[in-house]
Amino acid sequence: DAEITLLANLITLTPGTLFPEDHPGPSLRHGLYLGSEVSSPSGFLRRWADLVEVVEAPPVVPPAGAVLVRPDGFIAFVAVPADEAAFAQLDGMLGSWFTLPAWFRTAEAIR
């Protein structure tokens, strides 16, 4: 039963669709929902603190997953597993959408 629920949740969590749970509402920041087994990616969050905030994940988010929800409630990114490679991909995606603040543009600060 747990596997069926996990698969159903993954089908529901598709980029471009509305997040199926209550989202905090209109905001200027994206909500990053981390599964219970995912540790908070501090370097990533430090870089994107003005645009992304960690929000308590509802049960629909897989324990090893991460879901980025846009301010309008639509899903922008899903990763299972939410590992270092997934956060690097998310970092690149956000970097293509937004320009980092000037004080973060040095190679040293990005690492």
How would you characterize the overall build of this protein?
- The chain is of the alpha+beta class.
- The protein has four helices and four strands, in the order H-E-H-E-E-E-H-H.
- The protein has a four-stranded mixed beta sheet, covered by helices on one side.
- Strand 3 and strand 4 (75-79) form a beta hairpin.
- Amount of helix: 25-40%
Gyration radius over CA = 14 Å
Number of strands: 4
What is the element string, with H for helices and E for strands? HEHEEEHH
Q: Strand fraction band?
A: 15-25%
Helices and strands, with pairings:
Elements: H1 2-12, E1 30-34, H2 42-47, E2 52-55, E3 66-69, E4 75-79, H3 84-97, H4 107-110
Parallel strand pairs: 1-2
Antiparallel strand pairs: 1-3, 3-4
For the structure shown, list the relevant keywords.
about 110 residues, alpha+beta, 4 helices, 4 strands, about 30% helix
